[in-house]
Amino acid sequence: MAAVATPQQLADLVQQQQADEAAALEEQTAEEADGGAGGALAGLVAVALAAWVAAFGALAVIGGGLMLARLLAGLRADVDRAASGLGRRSRRVLEGALADAAGMGARHAVDFARRASGDDIGVPGVDVPEAALDAARGLTDVVTEQLRLAARLLAPRTISGSGWRGVVLALAAAKRAATLVRQTVAWAVHRAVNDGAAQVAQQLGARGLWVAEPDACVRCLAYAGHLTDRDGHFPGGLSMDPHSRSTLKAAIEGPPLHPACRCRLVPWMPDWGTGPGSLPELLRDQAWRSIAAGRGRPTESHAARRRAARALLARRGLSARVRRQATATAAGRS
Ligand SMILES: [Zn+2]
Fold it and tell me: Residue 36 and residue 31: Cα distance in Å, rounded?
């Protein structure tokens, strides 16, 4: 029997070491799936700008006729070349990575359980979750549709009305194909990692414990330290911000809660405790500190964070420091 780790050591294991490993797998998969398409598509704005100025003299001038038709045909070909093979490549790469991701999740969950219990536990085989596979299989169509939209936007009839602004919009639509690939890879890899961990939890007869990122969004922070019910589900629609709470949302199996979510699920046995000094409580305290500090994600509004801080103040058991900080955040002073 090995030494049992402290709650802080367990939190560090999941939130740092294991999170870094999962992030590296995500990054590697995303790079391979992208295959340089994202950079090539982004570079087309400069190409188009040079071509436009060369053809019409200035961005404000809307050329027409053969000149415009030729310029746009060239740009459509540039888009095709930049995104060449993206749909099929990203599907193949992601499908291939999901077994590694689920296996990593299982290994992480077993490492965690060993250190939480001191017991020697074997790593079981796990399946790739269907939802992650579906996301991978859908990539070819997602990319095709996005590129088709970009091609439509690069038609002479559209651009003769909108001018240069329309070209920028069309190229942004093309670039979005690569963005969607990255988002899908991120979501599916983390879904598979967490599902691998959930399968281990189930085989151990354990609950699933939600380990949020320390600086997660108001919705994810509401799950920090939460345990699954007997069916392996978390309630849907939780949020630290009362405005984004929903009692109508269906129960969920675990993280990721959204495409940019990097929260983790770990197994938690009933006799490992949930009271003072336990990991679930440590995670909840971490979430409360984050809400009190009021530093939101770039995607979050200050208002959401202020409301969350105000809601936090209604809770019992806040430390004096957290209460002071939350008061300042709720008043918009942080
Ligand atoms: Zn999250």
Answer: 7
Distance from residue 286's CA to the centre of ligand 1 (Å): 14
Domain ends where: 157, 178, 204? 204
Q: For 200-216, what is each residue's pLDDT tens digit?
A: 999 999 999 999 999 99
Q: How far is the CA of 314 from the centre of ligand 1 (A)?
A: 23
- pLDDT digit string (tens) for 223-276? 999 999 988 999 999 999 999 898 878 999 999 999 899 999 999 998 898 888
pTM over cut 0.85? yes
Together in a domain, 152 and 276: no
Quote the number of domains for the chain. 2
Domain-located, residue 1: no
Tell me, in angstroms, the distance from the centre of ligand 1 to residue 221's CA: 7
Interval between CA 325 and ligand 1 midpoint (Å): 23
